[in-house]
């Protein structure tokens, strides 16, 4: 197994490092900051537990489950979301309505009109688009399901996942599984039926999908891998140079203890795309990275609030509520973490997590907590009947939050492939290339060619 240098200790880099080490390989992880996990960070203050990045993991494969169980002392820290996690809300006419979970609720829901519901029945008879035509998420959904399902289902969903604009996001690259359903099965309903049948026909023990976190929050996950990596991981690193040599890659870096230099067979760079240009590569490679098509990362502010349950009229009996763009509100959505996991708020109180900004309203994302509260509190009062002052406030502002897989993203991926082809042993990876969810990042690292 080649000796590998991994730059960046986000979940992509850490997952790959633990996989290499657990298989007897040799690797070195270099991280600029004093902590691991990238955006996966938890903040504990007394009995409150706020997440600054991802709030949970969708555990959707036995492969990911086995990986989590392989990390020392992590399995006993895993907690499963309450059944309420299945219940989601979407705002319409200023009120959160449950997303239908079955055929009867789909018929009776006020989220869509009778005509909007009938429009969905046409979906199996709509032809698949030419595979050479790249389509936005918005156009795809309007074409197959109609405008109402777009405005009051997919638009808020994209806001919740990407903090993005469905009119600009590429279906093929931003939602590859939806794209595949149409291309392989002719449509969404046909594809869903085919997937259901193939799942029933599959042999072996049935895997149970579930939403999970950890007793002390998502930050426990990268911390556990960091502890297992021991001295293979170095923090507070300043990389001085990265040079290609005949035998591989020569990396020099500074730490508080002094300078170090080491040779590696492979170099895996997992930092966000907007940080690639800041790495000290040699001139030729640096110019190639400078020429990469721009990847947008809109700003997002994450505001966690403690509230007394008696001060909120909404029962908060679900995952959270997403806000469609057409509702013209000032937030993207609000999650109810304390309804999903224990020990997120004191007895008699609840924890809310509100997201502001993104591609929809970047000007509202701010590092000023007072200004953000002035934006958020009236929205919560209107949408979920929150009264009184918060008992707890934690604010995290991300200047560059989530990579946007916009129309034409194939050119970005092609450019990355070309860079790697001219620099053997180099791999550029992360959520801007393999998918933004935690599950996608883990899967990519587990399938990485060692």
Write the layout of secondary structure elements.
Layout: E1 4-7, H1 11-22, E2 27-30, E3 42-45, E4 48-51, E5 57-59, H2 62-70, E6 78-80, E7 89-92, E8 95-98, H3 103-108, H4 114-120, H5 137-145, H6 147-161, H7 171-174, H8 176-185, H9 188-201, E9 210-214, H10 220-229, E10 233-234, E11 238-245, E12 248-255, E13 258-264, E14 266-269, H11 283-290, E15 300-308, E16 320-322, E17 333-335, H12 337-340, E18 349-357, H13 369-384, E19 392-398, H14 409-422, E20 426-428, H15 431-434, H16 438-446
Parallel strand pairs: 1-2, 1-14, 2-10, 7-16, 14-20
Antiparallel strand pairs: 3-4, 5-9, 6-9, 7-8, 11-12, 12-13, 15-18, 15-19, 16-17, 17-18
Helix pairs in contact: 1-10, 1-16, 5-6, 8-9
Give the strand order, joined by hyphens, for the main sheet: 8-7-16-17-18-15-19
Low-confidence blocks of residues: none
**What is the count of β-strands?**
20
**CATH-defined superfamily of the domain at 4-40 and 218-293 and 405-446:** FAD/NAD(P)-binding domain
How much of the polypeptide forms β-strand, as a percent range?
15-25%
Let me know the largest β-sheet: 7 strands, mixed
What is the top-level CATH class of the domain at 4-40 and 218-293 and 405-446? Alpha Beta
Give the terminus-to-terminus CA distance: 7 Å
Structural class by secondary-structure content: alpha/beta
Could you describe the 3D structure shown?
It is a single chain. The protein is of the alpha/beta class. Among the domains are: 4-40 and 218-293 and 405-446, 3-Layer(bba) Sandwich (FAD/NAD(P)-binding domain), CATH 3.50.50; 101-201, protoporphyrinogen ix oxidase, domain 3 (Orthogonal Bundle), CATH 1.10.3110. Helices cover 34% and strands 22% of the residues. It contains 16 helices and 20 strands. Strands 8-7-16-17-18-15-19 form a 7-stranded mixed sheet. Helix 1 links the parallel strand 1 (4-7) and strand 2. Helix 1 packs parallel to helix 16 and helix 5 packs antiparallel against helix 6 (147-161). The longest helix has 16 residues, at 369-384. It starts with a strand and ends with a helix.
């Amino acid at each position: 197994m080649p000796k590998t240098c991994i730059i960046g200790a986000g979940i992509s880099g850490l997952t790959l490092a633990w996989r290499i080490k657990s298989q007897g390989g040799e690797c070195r992880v270099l991280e600029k900051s004093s902590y691991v996990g990238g955006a996966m960070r938890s903040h504990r203050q007394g009995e409150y537990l706020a997440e600054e990045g991802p709030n949970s993991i969708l555990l959707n494969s036995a492969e990911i489950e086995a990986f989590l169980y392989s990390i020392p002392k992590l399995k006993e820290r895993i907690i499963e979301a309450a059944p309420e996690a299945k219940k989601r809300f979407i705002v319409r006419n200023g009120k959160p309505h449950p997303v239908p979970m079955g055929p009867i609720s789909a018929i009776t829901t006020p989220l869509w009109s009778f005509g909007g519901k009938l429009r969905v029945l046409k979906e199996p008879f709509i032809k698949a688009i030419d595979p050479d035509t790249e389509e936005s998420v918005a156009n795809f959904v309007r074409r197959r399901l109609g405008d109402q399902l777009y405005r009051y289902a997919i638009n808020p969903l994209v806001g919740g996942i990407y903090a993005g604009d469905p009119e600009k996001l590429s279906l093929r690259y931003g939602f590859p599984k939806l794209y595949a359903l149409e291309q392989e099965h002719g449509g969404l309903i046909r594809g869903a039926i085919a997937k259901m049948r193939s799942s029933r026909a599959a042999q072996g023990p049935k895997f149970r999908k579930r939403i999970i976190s950890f007793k002390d929050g998502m930050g426990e996950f990268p911390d556990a891998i960091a502890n297992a990596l021991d001295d293979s991981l170095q923090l507070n690193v300043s990389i001085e140079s990265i040079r290609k040599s005949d035998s591989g890659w020569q990396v020099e870096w500074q730490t508080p203890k002094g300078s170090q230099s080491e040779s590696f067979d492979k170099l895996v760079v997992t930092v966000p795309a907007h940080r690639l240009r800041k790495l000290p590569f040699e001139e030729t490679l640096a110019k190639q990275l400078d020429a990469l098509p721009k990847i947008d990362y809109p700003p997002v502010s994450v505001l966690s609030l403690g509230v007394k349950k008696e001060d909120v009229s909404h029962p908060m009996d679900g995952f959270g509520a997403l806000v469609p763009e057409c509702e013209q509100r000032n937030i993207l959505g609000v999650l109810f973490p304390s309804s999903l996991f224990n020990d997120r708020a004191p007895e008699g109180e609840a924890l809310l997590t509100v997201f502001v900004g993104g591609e929809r309203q970047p000007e509202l994302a701010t590092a000023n907590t007072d200004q953000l509260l002035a934006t958020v509190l009236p929205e919560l009062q209107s949408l979920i009947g929150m009264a009184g002052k918060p008992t707890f406030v934690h604010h995290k502002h991300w200047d560059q939050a989530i990579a946007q897989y916009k129309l034409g993203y194939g050119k970005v991926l092609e450019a990355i492939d070309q860079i790697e082809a001219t620099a053997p042993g180099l791999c550029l990876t992360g959520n801007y290339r393999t998918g933004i969810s935690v599950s996608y990042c883990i899967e990519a690292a587990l399938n990485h060619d060692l």
